[in-house]
Amino acid sequence: MRAGAPLSYASMQHEADATNCARLGMLEAVISEHILIPPKFARYPEVEEVLWRTVQHAIAGEIEIDNALRQMREQISEIVPGGVDEAKKTKRWMI
Questions:
Q1: How many domains does the chain contain in total?
Q2: Continuous H helices in 34-82
Q3: Residues 60 and 29 in one domain
Q4: What domain range is 62 assigned to?
Q5: What would the pLDDT profile of 40-55 be if each residue is shown by its tens digit?
Q6: Would residue 50 count as lying in a domain?
Q7: pTM of the predicted model as reported, rounded to 2 decimal places
């Protein structure tokens, strides 16, 4: 892991349940090999959970891709009032 990296799998593992271990392992790999700058808004962890869970279901073939995209947009719109357009206006959304 690079010096000064903000997170490590070991430090997060005690807080994780079994369903999050794989995600945290991938996060550690990204952090150790690349620069990772998470979006700067307080509710991002909730958005990340929606993305992670829904993409898993789509990859597993449990839901159609178009349905997964619709579900993500609807759920994220509930988490982030005003959605992407509002976030862009207030510079809370990083593209």
A1: 2
A2: 44-59, 65-79
A3: no
A4: 44-89
A5: 788 888 998 999 999 9
A6: yes
A7: 0.51
Cβ atoms within 10 Å, residue 63 = 16
Q: What is the pLDDT of residues 11-43, one digit of tens each?
A: 445 555 666 787 778 778 877 887 767 677 888
Nearest residue to 69 (alpha-carbon basis) of 60, 58, 85 = 58
To the nearest whole number, what is the mean pLDDT of the chain?
A: 75
Residue 95 lies in a domain: no
Q: In the prediction, which pLDDT does 95 show?
A: 43
Contacts of 82 by beta carbon, 8 Å cutoff, 6+ apart: 89
Is residue 61 domain-shared with residue 78, that is, in the same domain?
yes
User: Which backbone phi and psi does 42 adopt, to 5 degrees?
Assistant: -60, -30
Q: How far apart are CA 7 and CA 24, in angstroms?
A: 10
- 25 in any annotated domain: yes
C-alpha to C-alpha distance for 4 and 62, rounded to whole angstroms: 39
**Residue with structure tokens 């959970």?**
49
What residues contact 73, with CB distance under 8 A and at least 6 apart?
A: 83
